User: What shape does this take?
Amino acid sequence: MIFVVVAGRIERLDAAMSAAQSGNLKMRAPVDRRDEIGRIAARFNEAMEEIDRSVAERDRLLEEQRRFNDILQEKVAEATREISQANENLSALNRDL
Assistant: This one.
C-alpha cells in the first residue's frame, strides 16, 4: 500500500517534470505532504516560478529593445531625410553659381 502511494506521488512529480521539459513552463507539481517527495516537488515548483519570472523579464526586455530600435530607426530615417534635403539645397546652390 505504501509503495502504491509513494509510486503515485513520484509519477505525478515525474509528469510535471516531463511537461516542463516539453515546454509547459506553467506546470507545477502537487505538494501534498512535507516529506522528501513533497520537498522535492516544492523545490521543483520554486525553480519553475523562477524560470517563469526570468522568461517574463526576458520578454519585457525584448519588448523594450524593440521599442528603442523602432525609435532609433525613425531618428535615422529623419536624419537621412534632413541630410538628403541639405544635399539637394547644396546642389541647387552649386548649379546657380
